[in-house]
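Tutorial handout. Part one gives the primary structure; part two gives the three-dimensional structure as tokens.
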Amino acid sequence: MIEAGQLLYPARLNFYAPTLVYKAFNTERASTTTLADDPELTLPVEAGGVYRMECVLGASGATAGDIKTAWAIPAGAVMNRVAMGPSVSATDRDNMQVVRRVNGAATEISYGLTGSSASTYIEERAVLIMGATSGAITLRWAQATSNATATQLQFNNCWLMLQRVS
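Part two.
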């Protein structure tokens, strides 16, 4: 934390600068409800740190498949996230119910999709309080209901931002 009267050096400012990753390619998953790590939406975290996390996901797929998310965090870390996105009953992206929940990192949250040609957006925010173990924070996701039509996280519509705040 930066305190009043403290000298600011570039290294200290960089310490608190946000880090952003975005999907450089589409990732598709079909006929599976088993959560798996996203190959791109992951960032390193240090022991003892406190981080602010924001993630936006642009997803598409069959309304029968939907999508579910959770997060992998290092042992000893604590994270509750606020999640907002379409309910699993969604079929029209312009007229849908939105679910807003608060859950722990590992709790699976299901969201609705409105078809393979229409992007649906999900937003998750959290504070991650690290324990004594460094590691990574990684998005885990799968279809909420197994379906042969792939659920897709889109390369130009997904990003993860992490900022150390303490």
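Part three, for discussion. The chain has one helix and twelve strands. The longest strand covers residues 115-129.
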